[in-house]
């Protein structure tokens, strides 16, 4: 490291820094991004043209990021849940509430507002109904910033005396750009309150 | 913030500093011991820092399209951890001043200083719990893993440097220095703030290797510049005692360069100077070491080295963030390279 000119110092810095980077990356062990990942957010428009890939991406994204259920808002909005997934609320007991978080995603460059969420009645497989489940949304008219997502806490009140079983219904999204969509909902494992044994 | 930095950078950092300070203030408990904990803690947080760590996290997140809300808790945690590290570092280094005022231990004693540092580290955990609701469980876990790695690396890097001093290690090369700095400084100052922001902003799809590369070059340039400011800066801006690193025997790039260029007699003097406690080093000896660094070109070497690192950082920026749409946040990330090597504080 004795008397060095600027070029020599520069080369030494390049070499030492490159070695430090290698050591660091070896330690953190980040997975090598696949081609899709390398595209980055700036390429959203490109893979939005490929709906199938978008569907795959969204499925993976929602599961990766939240371990929950989400839906997409935007000009190309769709019920990407056509494969059978549901927003699962519960389990719950009659007289209590069941809840889950619904994520609303906006992959568009513009914010979305004017969204309206409405829940339907719930019906069990043997025909029992909860006519008024008392739907509650932390944001019933959420706005979703550009390229962002907002969580909405969804709750249903299970009326006293409700029979056991699983109940299904829908949450409809209207307002905002794109077609209205529905999210299927299942309230699972409703167990009647046991009678006191004494 | 009194500085010659470009107005855009000053404004951006000030906006971040203000937003983070507001979030921190909201998270401080109202009760609890004041004179021995929350009083000194609040005073320390109120000292003007650069807010570079939360700024990098927020900029990386928003450049990828995130809202501020989603990256703010992690950014607040980074700033609180930074302040915790500073207080403990100052104890370990025996430093006298920090951000233009006495260090925590100089003002309140070592026991209180250590406890206030612990308190800041504990407070840093609180905003991270918000990520569960903001980001969902899977992303929350990924962010927590990043924080875990950040903490481990920072502590290991500090241990390496303290070990060099304790064992009076003198046979170091610039690569040893950079590998230590990658852990001690870059991990929590640049690499993980950028990684966490990118992770959240891109929903985990950013190429974190490229982000890390940019962060390591940037953070290394930052640390070399910091070491230079310790020797050549204006104390009222820099906020720490000038030549303090020499007094502490820190293995800076300039000292490593100096040790490799001196003759045998000078080397014996340096080894003897470094072998001991800070209190054993006289002002005259400190001035002699500083003078030798000028004579042997160690200052010039470090300046050229920092510029080379900044050159690499600028190149790495293009790979890490170059494809993102133009935004003030992307601009901040691009301009922060010049900022760190040309700053005066």
Written overview of the protein:
The complex is a heterodimer of chains A (198) and B (345). Chain A is an alpha+beta fold. Chain A has 2 domains: 30 residues; 153 residues, Immunoglobulins (Immunoglobulin-like, Sandwich), CATH 2.60.40.10. In chain A, the strands form 2 sheets. In chain A, strands 2, 4, 5, 6, 9 and 10 form a 6-stranded mixed β-sheet that branches. About 27% of the residues of chain A have low confidence. Chain B is mainly alpha-helical. Chain B has a single domain, classed as Farnesyl Diphosphate Synthase, CATH 1.10.600.10. Chain B contains 16 helices and 2 strands. A two-stranded antiparallel ribbon of chain B has the order 1-2. In chain B, strand 1 and strand 2 form a beta hairpin. In chain B, helix 1 crosses helix 3, helix 4 runs antiparallel to helix 8 and helix 8 crosses helix 9. The radius of gyration of chain B is 20 Å and the shape is globular. Chains A and B meet through helix 1, helix 2 and helix 4 of A and helix 6, helix 7, helix 8, helix 9 and helix 12 of B.
Query: How many runs of DSSP E, i.e. beta strands of chain A?
Result: 10
Summed over residues and divided by their number, the pLDDT of chain A gives a mean of 65
* Structural class by sheet pairing and helices of chain A: alpha+beta
What is the count of β-strands of chain B? Answer: 2
Strand order of the largest sheet of chain B: 1-2
Strand content of chain B: under 5%
Largest interface: A-B, 45 and 54 residues
Compact summary:
The complex is a heterodimer of chains A (198) and B (345). With 198 residues, chain A is an alpha+beta fold. Chain A has helices at 6-28, 35-39, 44-48, 51-66, and strands at 69-73, 87-89, 97-106, 116-119, 122-124, 129-130, 136-137, 148-157, 165-174, 181-190.
Write the layout of secondary structure elements.
The complex is a heterodimer of chains A (198) and B (345).
Chain A: H1 6-28, H2 35-39, H3 44-48, H4 51-66, E1 69-73, E2 87-89, E3 97-106, E4 116-119, E5 122-124, E6 129-130, E7 136-137, E8 148-157, E9 165-174, E10 181-190
Parallel strand pairs in A: 1-3, 2-10
Antiparallel strand pairs in A: 3-8, 4-9, 5-6, 5-9, 7-8, 9-10
Chain B: H1 7-27, H2 34-46, H3 52-63, H4 68-93, E1 97-98, E2 101-102, H5 104-108, H6 110-135, H7 137-166, H8 174-201, H9 208-232, H10 235-238, H11 244-248, H12 253-261, H13 264-274, H14 283-295, H15 298-321, H16 328-342
């Amino acid at each position: 490291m004795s008397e060095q000119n600027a070029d020599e110092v520069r080369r030494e810095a390049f070499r030492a820094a490159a070695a430090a980077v290698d050591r660091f990356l070896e330690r953190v062990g980040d997975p090598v991004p696949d081609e899709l990942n390398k595209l980055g957010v700036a390429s959203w428009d490109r893979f939005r043209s490929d709906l199938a890939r978008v569907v795959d991406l969204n499925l993976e994204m929602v599961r990766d990021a939240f371990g929950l259920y989400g839906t997409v808002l935007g000009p190309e909005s769709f019920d990407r849940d056509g494969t059978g997934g549901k927003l699962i609320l519960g389990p719950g007991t009659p007289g209590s509430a069941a809840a889950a978080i619904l994520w609303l995603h906006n992959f568009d460059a513009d914010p979305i507002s004017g969204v309206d969420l409405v829940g339907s009645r719930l019906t069990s497989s043997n025909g029992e109904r909860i006519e008024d489940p008392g739907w509650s949304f932390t944001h019933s008219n959420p706005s979703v910033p550009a390229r962002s997502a907002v969580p909405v806490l969804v709750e249903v009140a299970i009326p006293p005396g409700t029979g056991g079983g699983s109940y299904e219904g829908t949450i409809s999204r209207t307002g905002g750009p794109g077609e209205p969509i529905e999210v299927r909902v299942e309230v699972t494992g409703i167990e009647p309150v046991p009678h006191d044994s004494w | 913030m009194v500085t010659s930095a470009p107005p855009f950078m000053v404004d951006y950092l000030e906006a971040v500093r203000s937003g983070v300070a507001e979030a921190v203030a909201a998270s401080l408990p109202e009760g609890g011991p004041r004179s021995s904990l929350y009083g000194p803690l609040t005073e320390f947080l109120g000292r003007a820092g650069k807010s570079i760590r939360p700024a990098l996290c927020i900029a990386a997140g928003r450049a990828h399209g995130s809202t501020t809300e989603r990256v703010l808790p992690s950014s607040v945690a980074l700033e609180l951890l930074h302040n915790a590290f500073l207080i403990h570092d100052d104890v370990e280094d025996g430093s006298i001043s920090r951000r233009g005022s006495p260090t925590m231990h100089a003002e309140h004693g070592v026991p209180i200083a250590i406890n206030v540092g612990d308190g800041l580290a504990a407070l840093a955990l609180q905003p991270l719990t918000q990520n569960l609701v903001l980001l969902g469980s899977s992303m929350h876990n990924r962010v927590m893993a990043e924080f875990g790695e950040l903490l481990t690396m920072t502590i290991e890097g500090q241990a390496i440097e303290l070990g060099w001093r304790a064992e009076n290690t003198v046979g170091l090369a610039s690569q040893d220095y950079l590998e230590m700095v990658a852990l001690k400084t870059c991990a929590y100052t640049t690499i993980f703030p950028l990684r966490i922001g990118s992770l959240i902003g891109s929903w985990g799809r950013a190429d974190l290797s490229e982000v890390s590369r940019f962060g390591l070059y940037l953070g290394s340039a930052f640390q070399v510049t910091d070491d230079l400011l310790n020797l050549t800066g204006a104390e009222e801006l820099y906020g720490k005692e000038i030549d303090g690193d020499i007094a502490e025997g820190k293995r800076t790039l300039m000292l490593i360069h100096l040790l490799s260029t001196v003759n045998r007699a000078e080397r014996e003097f340096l080894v003897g100077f470094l072998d001991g406690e800070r209190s054993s080093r006289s002002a005259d000896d400190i001035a002699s070491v500083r003078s030798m660094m000028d004579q042997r070109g160690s200052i010039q070497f470090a300046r050229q080295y920092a510029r080379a690192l900044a050159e690499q950082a600028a190149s790495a920026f293009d790979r890490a963030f170059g494809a993102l749409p133009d935004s003030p946040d992307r601009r901040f990330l691009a301009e922060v390279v010049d900022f760190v090597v040309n700053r005066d504080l």
